[in-house]
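Put briefly, the fold is written as integer tokens. One such record reads:
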Amino acid sequence: MVNRIITDISNYIFVSDEPERVDAIFLPGSSYPEQPEYAAELYHRGYAKWLIPSGGVSVKVAQWPGVQSKADKYDGDYHSDCEFFTDVFLKNGVPADAIIGENQSGHTRDNAFLSRKVVEEKGITLGTALIVCKAFHARRSLMLYQMAFPEVALKVCPVCYLGITKDNWYKTEKGIDRVLGELARCGNQFVGDMKAYLL
């Protein structure tokens, strides 16, 4: 039997919505291709006009870490999350003019706010959007993109990474570390932002 604490954390962190037709799909950075592959699938199914990948090099490391899965298929000399995601899109049949990339961000907050900057520079108005992100990254992604795009109705369509799901995260050390790390960051990374947002 799963106890109440685990259930509450699971429901908070693992935000998940059904995909629906929107103006754009946002993708916070990563070095796994499953995220842009899923977004490309949604694009081809007519869910969005724009794909907005974001990410430079993580602030935690000095260089891009390399492709973490399917490196035989995605074998370019990538230097950023955005460059990698863009290649995944192109190799999955997404036209270049549907992609609005941002390659300067080093963390999730910048993913959101620098995506806003490139959208504004393109003169694009968004009313609705999906966020395609790692499942255990869903709540933090949603919080930050909501701050960057308060006028946009956002939904989250997550992708499972590393086998970590809402139903099993608490059963492995890797899952516990990832999810409780996200839970902590949902608090400590938002102190200043949340005060400004609420007051």
About this structure: The chain is about 40% helix and 10% strand. The CA atoms of residues 33 and 71 lie 9 Å apart. Helices lie at 4-13, 34-44, 81-91, 108-121, 138-148, 173-188, 191-198. The first strand starts at residue 24 and ends at 27.
